[in-house]
Design goal:
single chain; alpha/beta; seven-stranded parallel sheet; binds nicotinamide-adenine-dinucleotide
Length: about 250
Amino acid sequence: MTGRLAGRIALISGGASGIGAAHARVFAAEGAKIVIGDIQEEMGAELVAGLVADGASALFLPLDVTSEESWKAVVAETVSQFGGLTSLINNAGIGRGKDTESESVAGWDKVVAVNQTGVWLGMKTAIPEMRRAGGGAIVNISSVYGIIGSAGMVAYHATKGAVRLMSKAAALEYAGQNIRVNSVHPGIIETPLALTLPDEYIADLKGRTPMGRFGRPEEIARGSLFLVSDDASFVTGSELVIDGGWTAQ
Ligand SMILES: NC(=O)c1ccc[n+]([C@@H]2O[C@H](COP(=O)([O-])OP(=O)(O)OC[C@H]3O[C@@H](n4cnc5c(N)ncnc54)[C@H](O)[C@@H]3O)[C@@H](O)[C@H]2O)c1
């Protein structure tokens, strides 16, 4: 590893599992101090214990991304423990397989609260600390489903599309303050979330992916690593698609 994130303090929402956990491992290996915020406390604490055993500075904090109070507490504790906050990965997200007619208001509201409001609250809470640190970088994890449609996941598409444009709006708001905001759009990635899908749906998604396989969580984290690092110093308001060619068709 090359210490590309030396001196960075990174908060990863939904960092206990899947793509978020891969971000924690990759960022820690590149020298960042890591804060994992998640509702899955046991898994998050276990991951942090492993990172610390490997020599990283890492912390688990309980975070419910739907709650502004919870975000405030986590950002305050991050600053108190590590002295600031420079990087935010808004990764926490949930899936939901309901189409336009079968979706309920309660189901819709839950997906919006986690996938959409959660991302906005994360940016709202972290940005003042990034300004104090002299700058920062935010990566919002959307999906290819924030760019193209599919049948049967209406609320998920709505929220992931919102994340794409919310990222561009915030990028424009903070472009003059050395705070960069980009979105990442994974295709089908091998995580607990994806593996809850029915077998025939998984086979169909693999079939749509020209590279013929699931992506690995680390392959998403490496894209975010670029966006958070100085290598991307002129990249803001951009969208990085990591999908094995799916949306090139
Ligand atoms: N896996 C894929 O194929 C895929 C594809 C495109 C986009 N994504 C996106 O990637 C992100 C990570 O997904 P994943 O596949 O790693 O899923 P995952 O289920 O493995 O991880 C999601 C994490 O978010 C956490 N979380 C859920 N609700 C939360 C809340 N209210 N507050 C805090 N944390 C909460 C979960 O506890 C979990 O640890 C999500 O935003 C997802 O939509 C995943």
